[in-house]
Amino acid sequence: VSLSVDLAVATATNTSFSKALPGLQLAVDSSSLGVFKTCARKYYYSIVLGAQGKAGNVHLHFGILLHEGREHYDHARASGADHQQALRAAVKHVLKATWSKDLGRPVWPDHYKPTNKSRYTLVRTLIWYLDQYEHDPFQTVLRTNGKPAIELSFSFDSGYASRTTGERFTLCGHIDRVATLNDVPYILDIKTTEYTLGVGFFKKFRPHNQFSLYSLAGQIELPVPTQGLIVDAAQVAVTFSRFERNIIPYDRAAVEEWHQDLGVWLDQLDGCASEQHWPMNDSACDNYGGCEFREICSKSPGSRDIWLSKLPKRVWDPLQRRGDI
Ligand code: SF4
Q1: Per residue, what are the HEC states of the chain?
Q2: Among residues 260, 289, 259, which one has the least CA distance to residue 112?
Q3: What confidence score (pLDDT) does residue 1 get?
Q4: Which residue among 38, 42, 57, 287 is best mutated to probe the pocket of ligand 1, counting the most ligand atoms within 8 A of its Cβ?
Q5: Ligand 1 in contact with 285 (CB < 6 A)?
Q6: What is d(CA 57, CA 249) in angstroms, rounded to the nearest whole number?
Q7: CB of residue 117 inside a 6 A radius of ligand 1
Q8: Are 90 and 72 in contact (CB under 8 A)?
Q9: Is 297 in the pocket of ligand 1 (CB under 6 A)?
Q10: pLDDT, tens digit, for every residue of 192-230?
Q11: N or C: lower Cβ tally within 10 Å for the chain?
């Protein structure tokens, strides 16, 4: 990677990065770690520099808005609204979030290939999902302040430190929802797919980077340790959305194994920053329908910075909190 990029400047507004070693992320969430595990170069582009591939990520966008809709629904119900009132609040939120006042029309990320995930299917999926779970046996936990336990931010010491600077690594993130069934607490998450639901779909959540971190957080950050995760899966097709729920158990041994491996990954993260080199994993370029940075990586190394500078940027800072555990 060319060193013409000033990493101190690139990460100046990102509080999750070290000031002592520019390019070293100290507060790590599952998204950052997941990208790093996939390809260190992709991590450099998307997390360190904050570049967004040309295609935009419609799947991420769809998922975030579905979660936000669910969040608005839960807040409304906790404030005394009935199902229909809360549903309207949720739909209103996603409609507003996908509307540009300036342009006077809906806005939706472009995508490199046709997808079932559109503004229309988002609203339909949200309504059908909330209708299906109107009488959910899993009851959202109410916190002591009376607010629902949704979008809970967590951050705790990882148990590891940078070999280069000695600074501690923090693990952080946001848990969707904590709910109980027969007084047993679980972490709930919504996952969307365009493919058929079934045993094969749920198998991919163990082992799973994000869920391992959530399980660790659930076991040490919550007053009562969680017993696993619940995945609410939504299949989004052109003409229908359908849902399936499954429990993904995570015992203590599985979480401990993930935490042990984490030390190796954080060492590599540290090494990349201290060497100012994030290697390409060219066997990951075709994952998930093709990497959004393929066009950049296909260019001659000396010209990549120019191409990168043309991409839209955002700051990925997992320390920006939402709710609190
Ligand atoms: S195109 Fe391949 S090498 Fe380049 S960032 Fe993506 S996964 Fe990594």
Answers
A1: CCCCCCHHHHCCCCCCECCCCCCCECEECHHHHHHHHHCHHHHHHHHHCCECCCCCCHHHHHHHHHHHHHHHHHHHHHCCCCHHHHHHHHHHHHHHHCEECCCCEECCCCCCCCCCCCHHHHHHHHHHHHHHCCCCCCEECECCCCCECEEEEEEEEEEEECCCCCCEEEEEEEEEEEEEECCEEEEEEEEEECCCCCHHHHHCCCCCHHHHHHHHHHHHCCCCCCCEEEEEEEEECCCCEEEEEEEEECCHHHHHHHHHHHHHHHHHHHHHHHHCCCCCCCCCCCHHHCCCCHHHHCCCHHHHHHHHHCCCECCCCCCCCCCCC
A2: 289
A3: 46
A4: 42
A5: yes
A6: 29
A7: no
A8: yes
A9: yes
A10: 999 999 999 999 999 999 999 999 999 888 777 888 899
A11: C
What are the tokens at 307?
Answer: 């191409």
Q: Is the CB of 293 under 6 A from ligand 1?
A: yes
Q: What are phi and psi of 194, to 5 degrees?
A: -95, -5
State the pTM of this model.
0.90
Nearest atom (ligand 1) to Cα of 38: 7
N- to C-terminal Cα separation, the chain: 39
Assess whether the C-beta atom of 97 lies below 6 angstroms from ligand 1: no
What amino acid occupies position 125?
T
Distances, alpha carbon 238 to alpha carbons 52, 136, 150, 198, 241, in Å: 27, 26, 29, 19, 8
Cβ proximity of 300 and 308 under 8 Å: no
pLDDT (0 to 100) of residue 323: 44
Rounded CA-CA distance 40/273 in Å is 10
pLDDT for residue 9: 84
Report how far residue 90's alpha carbon sits from residue 300's, in angstroms, rounded to the nearest whole number. 46
Q: Is the CB of 39 under 6 A from ligand 1?
A: yes
Assess contact for 166 and 23: CB atoms under 8 A. no
